[in-house]
Amino acid sequence: MVEDDDELENSTSCEEKHIWKKLLATPEGRILVIGLIMALLFISVLWLGYLRFQEKAHVFIGMSATNILFGRAAGISFGYSFDLGNVLVIITNIIIETILVLIFYPLFVFSWRNILVIKPLRRIMKRTSIAAEAHQDTIRKYGIIGLFMFVWLPFWMTGPVVGCAVGYLLGLSPWKNLTIVLSSTCLAIICWAILLRNIHDRVAEYGPYASIAFVIVIILIVSGIYVLRYLRHKY
User: Fold this and answer.
1) Where are the transmembrane segments (predicted)?
2) How high is the pLDDT of residue 131?
3) Domain definitions of the chain by residue range
């Protein structure tokens, strides 16, 4: 009986390894590997920075977390509120969103094909699928330009994560999809940075804590939208 259990475990383990090998051999699998490597490098840089320049590292960690949790506007605003320059804010946010897309896109594709479903991400994948399906017909009318504008426009449930899912549903090849999505993302971040830089410069005139208050307002607005969306789906 014990031997049978061991054989079953070994068989399951071999099967899982075989599945992962097949997944990593696909274009999406290679994209996932690139995304994970970029994430590892980014985390390593933050860690090394923390060892040498703790105060600055805290700002970059905070900006990264704010972008991931509350979106682009909050992340960029966070950087400006701690006096980071345009180049650092723009490059950091581009890296963050690029990593998110490179990791999320293949996981979405695997989930859509029912090849690999990660339970903690199931709700996110479902929401993304619903949003992507809701927008795909509109974007299809305008093709590549439509997808580019969808990612660039600063509306709720637009952006690179949903955009790459829409691109997949439209039948775009992985690399073409990511080229459109990431180029639009870069442009959007630059536009947001220019806008928010001007706003922060004006807000800062009202006092030393005005910029931080501005970030808090953005976070509260985004949090409110999250809560409203949760309540709407729940009830």
Assistant:
1) 31-51, 58-82, 88-112, 144-171, 177-196, 208-228
2) 72
3) 16-234
CA–CA gap between residue 103 and residue 120 (Å, rounded) = 15
Cβ atoms 150, 139 nearer than 8 A = yes
State the DSSP code for 143: H
Which residues fall within 8 angstroms of residue 83, CB to CB, at 6 or more apart? none
Q: Measure the CA–CA gap between 66 and 74, rounded to whole angstroms.
A: 6
In this structure, are residues 177 and 164 in contact, taking their beta carbons and an 8 Å threshold?
A: yes
Cα–Cα distance measured from residue 74 to residue 218, given in angstroms and rounded to the nearest whole number? 6
Residue 64, both tokens: 């990264």
> What is the token pair recorded at 93?
């946010």
CA-nearest of 164, 134, 137 to 148 is 164
Least Cα distance to 129 among 177, 97, 174, 168 occurs for 168
How far is residue 81's CA from residue 76's CA, in Å, rounded to a whole number? 9
Residue range 142-176, pLDDT digits in tens: 778 888 887 887 655 567 888 888 888 888 899 99
**pTM of this prediction?**
0.82
Low-confidence ranges of the chain (pLDDT < 70): 1-20, 119-121, 154-158, 229-235
Nearest CA to 106 out of 123, 88, 125, 87 is that of 125
Angle between helices 86-112 and 160-169 (to 10 degrees): 40
